[in-house]
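thought: fold this chain, then report.
action: predict
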Amino acid sequence: MRRFFCLMLFFCILTVSLPGCGKDKEEEAGFFIYYLNIDKTKLAGKSYELNADMTDTESACHELLSALAGDSGDVEYKQSIPTGVTYSYYLEGDILNMNFDAAYYEISVVDDVLCRASVVKTLTQLDGVSGVNFLVDGTPATNANDEIIGVMSAEDFVENPGEQINAIQEASITLYFADSKGDGLVKETRDVYYSTNISAEKLIMEQLIEGPQSANAYATIPPETKLVNVSVVDGVCFVSLDETFRNQNYEISEEVVIYSIVNTLTELDTITKVQISINGNTDGTYRDSFELSTFYERNLDLLSLE
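observation:
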């Protein structure tokens, strides 16, 4: 009975704190160009009136791609196809083949992911385009794991589909915190209830920031740290934390901090690598030696015997 009451209470809290039912504002407004936001950390949809006839798919594609590669006319929206990268395209049925030149491989992984997402989400609004196939110099483009990307549709970039509270479910998750000496990791497993609207990676990061519940474990992330964004593309989890993340307890080693995040997220079958950024910025290092631009893989060598 107590378990049922807690579950109902949790549902009520979610109902109050999460947005209500209904369509997203962008869906209600009609056609959108998906630029980058002012910080270039995520997509930002801007209402757009298409000049080309939507039934003329090739002309419509030309207009939309020109918009993505050019000035939006608004400082809040940044071009998503990077300057210096040239492209061509051709249609095969309802698949748009997007071919970048070799300069595309010189952009950062985050820019790559956002560029692809903006092209796919913008172009697949056309009835004549169901997906986009990415090429570089005429050969299939590859992701961070050197795997061919293939045809992508808008659904490949949806993190939290819909706003309606559909259900509450229970999950057992594994988190990694610091041991008492601060030079090793300890595992903590906990059962949580959560809305199906929240992504697994966001749920896990929020629980990690909340800190440990067991007596022999210590937090690796300052509890006041804000999770700016977290998303998974091609097996890589991109975690953006605010500047508070740097306010660390230096009794805990820097590798323990990094791998508490990496090992926790790679507990998910969908994640093989993790990149950590500060407000979306991957320049510089965390403390002395951990490059923010690096993709980190699972490392269980730090597990403590405690």
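thought: worth noting. DSSP finds six helices and 15 strands in the chain.
final: tokens above.
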